[in-house]
Structure to design on (653 residues):
């Protein structure tokens, strides 16, 4: 028994660590293939021993969501489904009953609530007990009805997703290969959970209903099929399904398998649900699974290949990430020759060596992964030198995961953040220089410092030949660089990356010194600290930056490359002079809160991050909210404005 428990504890730790890394930290420490194998082994041990430990993933669903979105508890837990890869198990599970066999959509599960025909709430599945409220984002889903004919309370569940065709269109507009979105599910998850629903709308997110939870006073004839058809009659798109029984279920599974390649909706299997509503309810649930539904997962298509090399790519975080390069194989209709290995722990667990025979597959038919190393030679050398700076590498243990890093603080790969700030929209606004592209240019030696960006034309031939670039992209990049040479003084100051100096503080500094960059560079900390809104910490940062010989030399060199534009401000336009605002919640009339902030600052006002006695107005479209900022504003007697109130104050209502 002790042997059982020891192995179970080890499996539980590995599985929980993998789930936490994937769901909370957006990183992967093992493949889906390996996770499923470990999970199945755990289930077998639990069944054989009759023991289920308290932290087993077999009785827990998901992890706590992490974001700034409001949270809400579901009326009942949103359980996951038991699963099988065996059609005969599916057939046996159905028995003599009739069921609905449908696509298992691979997106983000959402619960919608309508009252009096209007959408009043949308909540994500979250950790199955508590989800995130994304109502504003759901309202911009491409195919979701804004009003329905049913006036009672309607609660339904479905999947938010981005179709393959829309995903490909979004990626087609991104010329940098490394900047392209990885897969529809991750893009959908990020899109649905945006704080700015304009981004959600741009991503073409759609909703497909799969379960009716509540609709009173409607007779569905005890049939889930009738429920789905009724939802479709209200204007909802629903997941495609087939009515199945013991006689035709194998044939219909074959139909889905034959049509998966032409299905525009991301799917990672099928779902079989009993049609009889009353019988389904009588079955109840286990601790983790409902008993009226089961998932069917496709058996992964695997191919043999041989490992040719492993690329080690240094990143701005200091991590050096391995990517397997193998002989090209056909998987799910496409040619595959690369797969991320993620970290040293996975390299070691696979015992990789050059020339090894590998089994590879596509997780969810999308992401190439190594499922098994048949040779296990273990002769792959972990690099002892950083591929960018050539300095010694170091292996670190991060929560039980071994990762390769470059500890050199001066490694050029780590300068990407500063370069990224320099070219960002609020600084030089150079389109075509994503972090991935900057990283490539640094690694190839085109960029050593920010000034080199203005001389990328010296590397024309090499850039044109780079993957994801070409002549057209190069010409667009050069034009963007030339256009950026004329820049507002505040944007220039912000681009320098002075500690504690964001765009707002850069504007305050430049207005005080009337856009005279030389006066700013000569200023003492005491003088700078006298500016309203600039404290002693920021003042010291500014003085220290311009007194540093190396940084001053860099600024002087940059000034020879650019023309600074003064901000033309009339006193009459400064309607918000000496006025401080705080902005919270979502906005509708502006693209985002930063755009509203820019308007306030252009009129002489300031935008603070928190409510205090110095705040003149709090802007919040939800004036009745019980948020901490609303409470503080009410305690201090500070007016709470909606956007409409603000526009009226601005004189634009």
């Amino acid at each position: 028994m002790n042997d059982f428990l020891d192995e179970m504890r080890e499996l539980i730790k590995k599985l929980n660590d993998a789930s936490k890394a994937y769901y909370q930290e957006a990183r992967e420490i093992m493949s889906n293939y390996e996770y499923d194998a470990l999970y199945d082994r755990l289930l077998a041990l639990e069944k054989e021993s009759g023991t289920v430990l308290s932290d087993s993933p077999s009785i827990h669903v998901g992890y706590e969501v992490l974001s700034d979105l409001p949270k809400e508890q579901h009326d009942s837990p949103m359980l996951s489904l038991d699963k099988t890869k065996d059609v005969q198990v599916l057939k046996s599970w159905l028995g003599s009953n009739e069921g609905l066999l449908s696509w298992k959509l691979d997106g983000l599960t959402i619960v919608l609530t309508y009252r009096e025909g209007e959408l009043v709430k949308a909540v994500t599945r979250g950790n199955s007990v508590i989800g995130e409220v994304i109502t504003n984002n759901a309202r911009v889903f491409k195919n979701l009805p804004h009003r329905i004919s049913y006036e009672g309370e309607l609660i339904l569940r479905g999947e938010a997703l981005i179709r393959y065709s829309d995903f490909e269109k979004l990626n087609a507009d991104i010329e940098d290969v490394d900047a392209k979105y990885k897969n529809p599910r991750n893009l959908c998850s990020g899109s649905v959970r945006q704080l700015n629903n304009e981004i959600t709308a741009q991503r073409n997110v759609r909703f497909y209903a799969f379960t009716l939870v509540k609709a009173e006073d409607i007779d569905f004839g005890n049939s889930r099929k009738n429920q789905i058809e009724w939802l479709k009659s209200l204007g909802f798109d629903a997941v495609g399904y087939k009515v199945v029984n013991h006689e035709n279920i194998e044939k219909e599974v074959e139909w889905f398998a034959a049509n998966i390649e032409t299905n525009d909706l991301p799917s990672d299997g099928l779902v079989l649900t009993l049609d009889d509503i009353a019988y389904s309810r009588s079955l109840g649930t286990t601790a983790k699974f409902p008993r009226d539904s089961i998932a069917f997962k496709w058996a992964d298509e695997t191919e043999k290949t041989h490992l040719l090399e492993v690329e080690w790519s240094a990143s701005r975080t200091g991590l050096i990430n391995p990517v397997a390069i193998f002989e090209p194989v056909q998987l799910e209709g496409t040619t595959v020759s690369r797969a991320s290995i993620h970290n040293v722990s996975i390299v070691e667990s696979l015992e990789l060596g050059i020339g090894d025979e590998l089994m590879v597959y596509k997780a969810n038919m999308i992401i190439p992964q190594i499922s098994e190393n048949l040779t296990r030679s273990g002769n792959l050398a972990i690099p002892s030198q950083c591929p960018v700076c050539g300095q010694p590498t170091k292996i670190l243990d991060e929560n039980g995961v071994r990762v390769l890093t470059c500890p050199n603080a001066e490694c050029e790969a780590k300068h990407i953040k500063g370069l990224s700030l320099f070219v960002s929209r609020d600084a030089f606004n150079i389109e075509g220089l994503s972090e991935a592209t900057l990283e490539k240019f640094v690694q190839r030696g085109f960029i050593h410092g920010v000034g080199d960006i203005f001389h990328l034309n010296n590397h024309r031939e090499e850039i044109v030949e780079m993957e994801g670039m070409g002549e057209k992209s190069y010409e667009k990049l050069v034009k963007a660089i030339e256009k950026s040479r004329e820049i507002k003084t505040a944007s220039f100051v912000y681009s320098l990356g002075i500690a504690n100096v964001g765009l707002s503080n850069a504007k305050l500094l430049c207005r005080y010194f009337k856009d005279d960059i030389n006066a700013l560079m000569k200023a003492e900390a005491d003088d700078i600290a006298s500016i309203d809104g600039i404290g002693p910490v920021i003042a010291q940062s500014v003085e220290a930056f311009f007194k540093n010989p190396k940084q001053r030399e860099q600024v002087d060199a940059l000034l020879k490359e650019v023309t600074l534009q003064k901000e033309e401000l009339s006193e009459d336009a400064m309607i918000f002079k000496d006025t401080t605002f705080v902005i919270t919640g979502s906005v509708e009339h502006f693209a985002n809160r930063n755009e509203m902030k820019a308007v306030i600052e252009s009129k002489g006002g300031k935008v603070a991050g928190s409510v205090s006695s110095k705040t003149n107005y709090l802007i919040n479209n939800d004036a009745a909210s019980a948020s901490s900022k609303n409470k503080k504003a009410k305690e201090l007697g500070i007016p709470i404005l909606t956007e409409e109130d603000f526009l009226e104050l601005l004189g634009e209502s």
Observations:
- Residues 487-565 form a domain with the DNA polymerase; domain 1 fold (CATH 1.10.150.20).
- The radius of gyration is 29 Å.
